[in-house]
């Protein structure tokens, strides 16, 4: 299991009903898309951090790493909005700056809601909830298989990188390029082999093209639903009025 899945399976919110967590973080995601920046988005980010770190007790280092990872993509995406090419020179567009910071603010708040859900809810529980809600079995199987394969490949790539480091595969630029090419080739071969192994293993637990998980549906608490609704209304009110 990858660190994110381990955190999702071993925190104080793991056994809470998936419907409650989907209501909370799905509502925060919708609020991030609708409320104007920046106060509303800061409130959403604060609520997500409070839920993950103080209430669910997700490891701080893992949560911050998962939260900050998309920042690089946001920075790259904001570049074309901020910069404009005029007479073969890059200039800063004031209108683009306004659009960029609003977009980045909205994206960070939405990412926080998604990451917090991922850190507090195992994929098996999400797939089981999706199946109960009518998600087609082949689609659930595809999502589960892809998720597991990505985790295996990341672990394999990390192991290969470590082995090449021990053999001084990056001592020179030429050796580093050769080592990188070898790693890519090895990961490609492993991807085909592991994908077949994962599909065979999962087909032993259920019909081919289906996923069988042991995730019982926990009863939803009316008190929790009321509290979640109050939180969402408060976040939306603060975002709209400030």
UniProtKB/TrEMBL annotation:
<feature type="transmembrane region" description="Helical">
    <location>
        <begin position="22"/>
        <end position="55"/>
    </location>
</feature>
<dbReference type="InterPro" id="IPR012809">
    <property type="entry name" value="ECF_CbiQ"/>
</dbReference>
<dbReference type="InterPro" id="IPR003339">
    <property type="entry name" value="ABC/ECF_trnsptr_transmembrane"/>
</dbReference>
<keyword id="KW-0472">Membrane</keyword>
<dbReference type="InterPro" id="IPR052770">
    <property type="entry name" value="Cobalt_transport_CbiQ"/>
</dbReference>
<dbReference type="GO" id="GO:0006824">
    <property type="term" value="P:cobalt ion transport"/>
</dbReference>
<keyword id="KW-0812">Transmembrane</keyword>
<feature type="transmembrane region" description="Helical">
    <location>
        <begin position="62"/>
        <end position="83"/>
    </location>
</feature>
<dbReference type="GO" id="GO:0043190">
    <property type="term" value="C:ATP-binding cassette (ABC) transporter complex"/>
</dbReference>
<feature type="transmembrane region" description="Helical">
    <location>
        <begin position="213"/>
        <end position="241"/>
    </location>
</feature>
<keyword id="KW-1133">Transmembrane helix</keyword>
<keyword id="KW-1003">Cell membrane</keyword>
<feature type="transmembrane region" description="Helical">
    <location>
        <begin position="175"/>
        <end position="192"/>
    </location>
</feature>
<protein>
    <submittedName>
        <fullName>Cobalt ECF transporter T component CbiQ</fullName>
    </submittedName>
</protein>
<dbReference type="Pfam" id="PF02361">
    <property type="entry name" value="CbiQ"/>
</dbReference>
